[in-house]
């Protein structure tokens, strides 16, 4: 039985004109017109039996047809003939039956309404039932709920979890609009799944509050962690230099402005390959020697590389005349490369890249790190399914390089996994504009962009999903953003950011972009493959709210007991580690 049985007497109005997906409806009842609102849903009669067309109200028009005469004042409204029109955008079809299934919604238009077809407002109990149909279609045994529809607070809003992560997602919104809240809502439901697998790139420690058996909290090693000798077992993650790709090594250690940069890059490539070869031979890993490359994740000693660079930089070779010497081909040309390597190696802030001997330089260290990051909640060892990595102590100038390193590791592990046995993983990229920028200003950013662009384009094949989160979508790489087929847009007040979101909306939904500056806090416009009906959703409150860091300025200023602890802040600044 159809959930939308209407009597003709309930009609809001009748179709006056049809143009592809746009329908104009004439409304006779002024009171009915006043009750309508833009973006509300309506149902229209279809030319096919058992079909009803679903549309969204785009515009409500009341226009006077003529001017009243003074003699007609006493006639009231009768002297002011008006035409009441509603413009509707068709978005799908509700079928009473599709094979064995009853009440099925499809985002297709197999027909268009005929002229004089009745149009009905979807409200009250009928709206609730229709939202229920949407929920059932998009949900499975483990349904992913975002909250409730703004149109009907009693109708729970579900999205398709498979399509949300297969086709990538973009979560955007101005500061304070509810992005972190929405992300936390998603993470809590992921963590409840038996074999969950997600990695969160947390730039400011916002998600430290996420608690439960499904969460594992890690942080990139800071100076205090290194001094204490902490490692993987302590939730501290080192990201050793030998995990870097060749391009990342060059972008970090070779100064492009140096006239000898090409020579430095070439020599570095040769010395790194030699150092990795030496490590494999010493460890007896001869089976790897046959096919490994400079990008293979094989440990090597930086001291070995520096020793060879110093030798070449000071090398003297036999001259043309017997008994004489001349400078070697690279004599004095590697000095800046050596200085940069030494400077980076001794920088306390970069201790996670250059861990002490025995911390992250063994052949099996990568196995343990990958098991922790990508094993999922059902893997051996019993790690939680959602791994939250705190990058707050990583220097901003190399942040893109380091985040890109973790993303690259995840992608390559999936790529080299046996097809059919891959366990999918979702990467949540918080504050994505910081390390996937539209306009890179450094080699580190270019390296990260290349990694994330490849994941955005090819990740679905290998079971890697992206969730890109940013308050400035205009500053996020266009290629990555355009590959996100699901959009969760919170309030956006900046014109450039609004323009980016509008470009991502389908042509038929362009009008939804006008909602962006007026969305309430915690309210989102959700569009994409994961939800059958593009609509506004009020995001439900997560169990553990993220630590947004929002400080109540006025209240703190008015508190006579509030005091600043500046001495610890200055000492933390000096030590480059947080003093508690």
UniProtKB/TrEMBL annotation:
Gene3D superfamilies: P-loop containing nucleotide triphosphate hydrolases. It comes from the Bacteria. It holds the Pfam family DUF87. SUPFAM superfamilies: P-loop containing nucleoside triphosphate hydrolases. Residues 146-409 form the Helicase HerA central domain. This is ATPase. It comes from Bradyrhizobium forestalis.
